[in-house]
Amino acid sequence: LVFESALAILIGLGAAYGFGGIAAVQQCFNWSQFLKFLPVSLFFAMGLSLKMLAVSHFQAGTIKIFGQLRLPLVALFSATMLAKHYSLVQWQVIGLITTSCFAFVLLKGQGRSRDGKSWKWAGLVQMLGWVFLNVSGGIAAERAYKSGLLPF
């Protein structure tokens, strides 16, 4: 993860230079911009850490399905915090996705109970934390991007 992050920073700086020259690279080191986007990166970093911890409790497929709960949370947060509007049909589809995710997780839990195993509460809390922090990061990112005069 560290190498990947360092490579992403270098690619980002290279892209900034390619599109805007040295002035764009200097904007990358603007302290006020850094502080504006710091909560975004913290939300995503902490969420990813929780997701990695959940891997020790669940299979990758279960985590992937559970991660689909980001959609209803994004819709709910963006409707309340960003004043986005969704149609009745869109809310119905979001409800179906939410119901399907919960049904999948509950069925997995019933299978564990039938096999004499207990629920993995720590893993569920970690996955819920990941989903919540990921959604919060997305909402914070949208606010940060739209709060300035820069084109990004």
What is the topological layout?
Elements: H1 2-28, H2 31-54, H3 60-67, H4 70-81, H5 88-114, H6 121-146
How would you sum up this structure in a few lines?
The chain has helices spanning 2-28, 31-54, 60-67, 70-81, 88-114, 121-146. The chain is mainly α and 152 residues long.
Structural class: mainly alpha
Total beta-strand segments? 0
Shape: globular
* C-alpha Rg (nearest Å): 19 Å
pLDDT < 50 runs, ≥5 residues: none
Helix-strand string: HHHHHH
Largest sheet: none
Strand content: under 5%
Put simply, the count of helices is 6
Mean pLDDT: 87
C-alpha end-to-end distance: 25 Å
Residue share in helix: over 70%
Q: Can you describe this structure?
A:
This protein has 152 residues and is mostly helical. It contains six helices and no strands. Helix 2 (31-54) runs antiparallel to helix 6. The protein starts with a helix and ends in a 6-residue tail after the last helix.
For the structure shown, list the relevant keywords.
152 residues; mainly alpha; globular
